């Protein structure tokens, strides 16, 4: 069997070598086929060299609507390079900020928003740039891995959250009638709750370590600076625990009375809390 295969192969090689005209014709056909495929392939590739600004914007917007953030960013950048002036260039810069934000690139989103605010301070959608900047600052406080693992944001550095709060406050201060102002105020309340929870976490840590004064100070700070947040009850609970451990009966009674009035179903009022 093996010898037969060798004979057949030898025969084929001999036939080809013995027929140069046939070989030339075969190579010509292959070359022609390659050229045809190349032409067809090139024709199928988009050639944006002669696109109008409207075509660039439509293509970029289609990718944006499809959630294809990197492709959208690329086309928007091409639009800005070819047509750097006019409403489409300005709109492209806004949509690039959004695409960076959705693509979890907060640093690029923030820098792009800052640039837009600096270049177009009177733009009719300048409030949107402020809004996206604030969202991106808050996004920078947690990594994509943290979000996937659902890490508690209150256990992370509250610095970016504070910066985000100030950015949202700038929006509602400068543009109180903005369509984004309502959502910005809601997010400000959520951020304050997050920051206050961070203080509670630290207070509980001090309490476990026996640093009663430090724990008490954290609880008081929450009550004094964030009186409307949801964790005020927890701050009072820390105060109850501290006063009980330190033997401050009068302060303990006063704090329990406040809990009874404000949070009658509080877990800190269960038997054994005093």
Task: Report what the structure shows.
With 274 residues, the protein is mainly alpha-helical. It is built from 13 helices and no strands.
- Range of strand content: under 5%
What is the CA-based Rg, rounded?
33 Å
Would you list the SSEs in sequence order as H and E?
A: HHHHHHHHHHHHH
Distance N to C terminus: 97 Å
What percent of residues adopt helix (DSSP H or I)?
over 70%
What are the low-pLDDT stretches, counting only 5+ consecutive residues below 50?
A: 1-18, 35-45
What characteristic shape results from the CA principal axes?
elongated
Question: What structural category characterises the helix and strand content?
Answer: mainly alpha
Biggest pleated sheet: none
- Annotation, overall tally of beta strands: 0
Number of helices: 13
Mean pLDDT: 84
Question: Topology of this structure?
Answer:
Blueprint: H1 2-17, H2 20-44, H3 53-65, H4 69-82, H5 87-102, H6 106-119, H7 126-139, H8 144-149, H9 159-174, H10 181-208, H11 212-225, H12 232-246, H13 249-262
Helix pairs in contact: 3-4, 3-5, 4-5, 5-6, 5-7, 6-7, 7-9, 9-10, 10-11, 10-12, 11-12, 12-13
């Amino acid at each position: 069997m093996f010898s037969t295969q060798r004979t057949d192969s030898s025969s084929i090689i001999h036939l080809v070598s013995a027929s140069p005209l046939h070989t030339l014709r075969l190579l010509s056909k292959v070359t022609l086929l390659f050229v045809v495929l190349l032409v067809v392939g090139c024709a199928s590739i988009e050639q944006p060299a002669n696109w109008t600004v409207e075509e660039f914007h439509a293509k970029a917007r289609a990718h944006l609507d499809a959630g294809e953030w990197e492709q959208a960013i690329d086309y928007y950048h091409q639009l800005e390079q070819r047509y750097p002036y006019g409403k489409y260039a300005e709109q492209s810069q806004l949509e690039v900020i959004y695409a960076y934000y959705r693509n979890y690139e907060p640093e690029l989103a923030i820098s792009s928003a800052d640039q837009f605010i600096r270049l177009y301070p009177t733009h009719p959608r300048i409030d949107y740039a402020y809004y996206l900047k604030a969202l991106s600052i808050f996004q920078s406080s947690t990594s994509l891995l943290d979000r996937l693992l659902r890490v508690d944001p209150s256990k992370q550095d509250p610095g970016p959250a504070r910066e985000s709060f100030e950015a949202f406050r700038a929006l509602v201060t400068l543009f109180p009638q903005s369509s984004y102002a309502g959502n910005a105020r809601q997010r400000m309340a959520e951020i304050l709750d997050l920051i206050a929870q961070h203080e509670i976490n630290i207070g509980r840590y001090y309490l476990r370590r026996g640093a009663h004064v430090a724990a008490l100070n954290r609880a008081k700070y929450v009550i004094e600076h964030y009186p409307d947040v949801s964790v005020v009850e927890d701050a009072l609970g820390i105060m109850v625990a501290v006063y009980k451990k330190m033997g401050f009966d009068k302060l303990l009674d006063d704090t329990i009375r406040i809990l009874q009035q404000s949070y009658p179903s509080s877990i800190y009022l269960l038997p054994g809390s005093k």
